[in-house]
Fold these 2 entries.
Entry 1:
Amino acid sequence: MDEFEARRILQTASDDEPVTIPATILRKLDLQDIPEGAGLQVGIVSDQVHKLDWNGTIYHRAGKLIGEADHTWTRKYWYSPIGLEQYLDLVRRAVEARQKTCDDVEVTAQDDDGAYIAFRFEISTTETNLGAAYTAVRKISDQVEEAAQEAANEVGKRIAEIAARLSGWGTDSLDSLVDAVENATSAQAKGRSLEELCSRLFETVPGMAVTQRILTETEEIDISIINGSDDPRLRREGPVILAECKNWSGKCGKNEFVIFRSKLENRSQRSTLGFLISWNGFAGTVTKEMLRGSREEPLIVPISGSELRQAVRIGDFSKVLLSAWDAAVAL
């Protein structure tokens, strides 16, 4: 899409039906290009699916550009270490505090129907260029959510510490954990060993901190990692990295890859990188799915059990991790 096509599409926008425009085009567009009362969302449309860069809409209202951040979440798919109600309450408090000091934000909607919680707030800007307005709105939106995200990280770290203590964390060497995963006679024993092995390996990467570990009933291990890496490849990624470990007896396939990608996309654009770890490797359908989505975010890096064993053997998980990242990007 170029700016001429974007202007044509913007003329069809309305308050109820905003259009989707790529972020790369916004700098070439101004307030006059969007009709009064109309709205736009920033992202792309691929295979009739809207993939948004930001959960919100930019509106033209009363001769100004206004951003409305939309925090509408379902409890079923909420993965943060703190509850959805507590998280959005912190966001609301931050909005109210900023409104008193800067008067550039305002709560516009709050609703809880049991399954979903909706919370929206408007962000004012004096910018008339759509690109500059989007940058200003995103900056304020991110600042408002900082305290809630920090609280979630702190809670996650505390839960991880307690879980580690209860599980006898750290009493086995990494070599022993590899043997335990390989030779375990039950899924639970294999899962616990793989959980500790993966988490402890990620902790060895400079700048990374594991904040949450969940072993599910389906024998999947979800790991949430704060990305503070100084490596230029990892530094460009989002602040939250997810890892999902499969301790199955078979190979991980396309369906698991697609489900994991949806988890990454459901993180308010804070997670652009995920590591899908399968102890027994991957089916060929995973590579095909990676090629199909190679132009899109997020990036999913597959890591096999053999690579974990190599990392323990050479004592350098960072090297193995970045090599896997390079291979995923090169597809």
Entry 2:
Amino acid sequence: MQSTLNVIHWNIDPVLFQLGSFGLRYYALCFLAAFIVSYVLMLRVFKREGKSQELLDQLSIYIFLGTLIGARLGHCLFYEFDYYIQHPLEMILPFRKGPDGWELTGFQGLASHGGAIGILVALWLFAKKTKTDFIWIADRLVLVVPIAGAFVRLGNFFNSEIIGLQTDVPWAVVFEKVDMLPRHPAQLYEALAYLIIFLILWTMYQRNAKPKAGYFFGIFLVLLFGARFGLEFFKENQEAFEAGMRFNMGQLLSIPFMLVGLFLMFRKPKTAQK
């Protein structure tokens, strides 16, 4: 990365190294780091709350699958529905049929709102299976989701994807793999916002480990999806159909999450969680 005339040029190869047909991508490392850091932090929470590591291990499997499946289906259904309704197998298989036959593509296209829905479904299934209170586990899980999101957005930066609008700010980035225009580094804006949200929630938890049921969950939804809604104004639209919309798909999908968060924050308190 080099700076020329107050513009940062970004042209890094997203593949760290290639071994035959296998390539290790920076994005994959960021995704892995997101789960490792989240696990370590959640282990501290579980120990503090007297919960077993075995329970956390089960939860981790549910969350991993819920995140991956939800994010993939979210992208296919929210952003490229017309294509994937004609090619349903490509939703779940890392292959795409080209002119020369099937080719390995990986899962190109993951939507964070779909991931959020997938996590909620996974939490519900986990709570039902283990007879754990859904709101209790949600209040704890959201403590680490923002730091995981920050790692994922860093991976997007390495991939030169989810780019920002053209700008002349001194910290503008030219994503040379996309074009030669100086743009907002929207991925870094979002990563920083998520890091700040993580610090806020983690500090609140350290000071008050037993808030009103759903309170941390509510704050998380309002802060994270509020940040997502605002930062969308700095981003290029993900798909062509969003061009004529007052609010893009990411913003529209954020509104229900924020409303649920406000409800959880301001509903009449019951009893402290146990």
